[in-house]
Design a protein that fits this description.
Helices cover 80% and strands 0% of the residues. It is mainly α. It has one domain (2-254). Helix 2 packs across helix 10 (205-229). The model has no long low-confidence stretch (mean pLDDT 84).
């Protein structure tokens, strides 16, 4: 235990804090394997250890590493035309997030975001129950989801809910859903790195070295996630994402 404490000393972490962060890394691996809805819990755990804004810098390299595993594993299922619709406004959303990130109240922002997620999910559930099979085709839907995903991705690493809603609306099968999301977030998270390093200064050599200690957690989580996903069919997968998204939004509200 003393040896482990000495390893963590440069990072000003207790053993308990590292265990919590390592658990978040495992959950991140599970989530990137396709088990959706864990994003809010991951963010909460990392914020508990490192604080709100600082945790975004610690988390972003871990997300890129987990994204690489997801891209490699699910690459063949990627639907590139959906990325072309989302990415332009998602890039813009990240830039807006960089700009307002220091000024807006994080609590107020997350509360507004949670309400918007709940309203959108309610509409999606209504469409499911009414057996509405029409896919939203107007450019404003993809652009709006992309913009919201970009803003929330930069400020709170919580873009997953909006992206999930979009892919659900497009009625993507399970593997295509995961493969397309994998490339989407890999591209966006790499795009965000320079802003964390040079603008917000939440990422430095010390936090990067700490990330290296948590890579085994990502690997273990990704293996667990892939194993679990093989047992879930497309219909159940859609229901689980709906449930996880609602729970995540509620957690944001009461945080």
């Amino acid at each position: 235990m003393q040896y482990f404490t000495e390893i963590l000393a440069p990072y000003h972490l207790s053993v308990l804090s590292f265990i919590v962060a390592f658990l978040a890394a495992i959950l991140l691996g599970i989530g990137k394997a396709g088990v959706k809805g864990l994003g809010v819990l991951i963010v909460l755990l990392m914020a508990f250890v490192f604080g709100g804004k600082s945790s975004t810098g610690v988390l972003i390299p871990l997300m890129v590493i987990a994204d690489i595993f997801a891209v490699i594993y699910y690459h063949r299922h990627t639907q590139w035309h959906y990325l072309k619709k989302l990415l332009p406004t998602m890039f813009l959303g990240v830039l807006i997030g960089v700009w307002v990130g220091n000024d807006i109240s994080e609590v107020l922002f997350k509360q507004i975001m949670a309400v918007f997620i709940l309203i959108t999910v309610a509409i999606m559930i209504w469409m499911e129950k009414k057996k509405v099979t029409d896919i939203p085709k107007h450019w404003t839907f993809a652009s709006g989801m992309g913009l919201l995903s970009g803003i929330t991705s930069m400020i709170g690493n919580l873009a997953g809910s909006f992206a999930d809603i979009y892919f659900l609306a497009m009625r993507l099968p399970k593997n295509e859903f995961i493969g397309t999301a994998a490339w989407l977030f890999f591209i966006i998270n790499v795009f965000k790195l320079p802003f964390h390093i040079f603008v917000w200064k939440t990422l430095n050599l010390e936090t990067f070295n700490l990330n290296l200690l948590m890579i085994p957690g990502i690997i273990a989580g990704f293996y667990i996630g892939v194993t679990v996903l093989k047992k879930i069919n497309n219909q159940l997968y859609r229901k689980l994402i709906f449930i996880a998204t609602v729970i995540g939004a509620l957690l944001i509200l009461i945080k």
